[in-house]
Amino acid sequence: MLLLLVIAHSCNEKRKTFKPNASEKMSKKVYVEDSIENLIFIDKAITIENYFQFIDSIVSKYDTLTPYKLSEHILVRANPWIIDTLQNTDYYKRISKDSFVFDQKKMVVLPKGTMLKVPDAVFAKKIKNSFKSTLIDINIPEFKLRIYNASKLVYEFPIRVGRDEEMYLEMSGRVQDLKTKTGEGQIVNHVRNPRYINPVNNHEYFVTKRDDDKVTKLPQIPFIETEINGIRNGQLIHPTTNAVTLGKAYSNGCVGTNEADAWVIYYYAPIETKVHIRYDLNVVNKEGDSIVLKDIYNKK
C-alpha cells in the first residue's frame, strides 16, 4: 500500500581540530594499534544540503584504500559526533534555545576545522557486526520504537502510527486501510532527499506549519522504507515536523518520529536491518509494572 511518495536524488568522541601547514594535505595517516587509520581534515563548512554529496565523495575515495567495503553508515558510526550534530538541527531543539531555523538545509553540520576518521579494519568489523545484530522494534499501541543490539536496548523513541480508518487516497486511486501493518521484515531503501507529497490529494508541498504556528521550509532528513512480510506497501519510518502528533494514531500508515530521532534511526538502520512491527497491549513499564495499553485499533 503506497501511503507516501518519496523520490531520492541519485562511545561519544570530541571533535579534533588542527591548523595544517601549507605542506600538509587534506588527509594524513596515523598508526593506531598496528593498523592504519586515515584522518580527514575538513577545510570548509559543509551544510546539510551538501552533506550527503560530501560524505559520498569521502566514501568513494577511501573505499579504494580500505581493506573492507566502506559505507556511509560505517563512516558516520565511526564519527558519532556527526549524529549528535545532526540531531541538534531539530527545529524544536533549536527553538527551545531561542534559535528559529527557517531552512534547515542551510545549517552547517560539518564545521570547518573538524576531522573525520576512516576506521581501520578492526573498528569497521566491529561496526558491521553491530549492524547485523541490530533490530528495529515497533509496538504500535505503545507508540514506541526501540533499537536493540544483540537483545540489549540501545534507544527508545516516541512515535506516531497510522489512523484506525479507511480513506480514499488520490495517490493510489483507491480506498486504503490507514492502520500501520504488523509483521517481520527489513529495511530495503533510504530516501535521503525526499519529496513531500500528501497522499490524500497528491499535492506536493515545500513548507510546513510547526506546532508553534511558525512556517518553515521542509527539512532534509532521510526517510526509511520497510518491507514487512515480504511486501513493500509504502510503510515508511520518517520524521514529522509536528512533534505534538507523537504518541497518537495520526498518520496515513507510516511510523513518524521527531527530527532528531530520525537521524539516529537512519544511522542505526542500514539496508537489511531487521524490523519487527507488533501490536502488543500487555507490556511492562519502566517501573516493572505490568500494564494493559489502550486498544487503539479495536482488535479485541
Automatic annotation (TrEMBL):
- Which InterPro entries did the record assign? LD-transpeptidase, LD_TPept_cat_dom, Transpep_catalytic_dom
The pathway where this protein functions is: Cell wall biogenesis; peptidoglycan biosynthesis
Which Pfam families does UniProt cross-reference here? YkuD
Q: Which GO terms describe its molecular function?
A: peptidoglycan L,D-transpeptidase activity; transferase activity
Return the GO cellular component terms, semicolon-separated: extracellular region
GO biological processes: cell wall organization; peptidoglycan-protein cross-linking; regulation of cell shape
* L,D-TPase catalytic domain sequence ranges: 134-278
Q: Where is the active site?
A: 238 (proton donor/acceptor), 254 (nucleophile)
UniProt entry keywords in alphabetical sequence: Cell shape, Cell wall biogenesis/degradation, Peptidoglycan synthesis, Transferase
Q: Which CDD domains match?
A: YkuD_like (cd16913)
What is the similarity comment for this entry?
Belongs to the YkuD family.
Q: What is this protein called?
A: L,D-transpeptidase
Native source organism of the sequence:
Pontimicrobium aquaticum
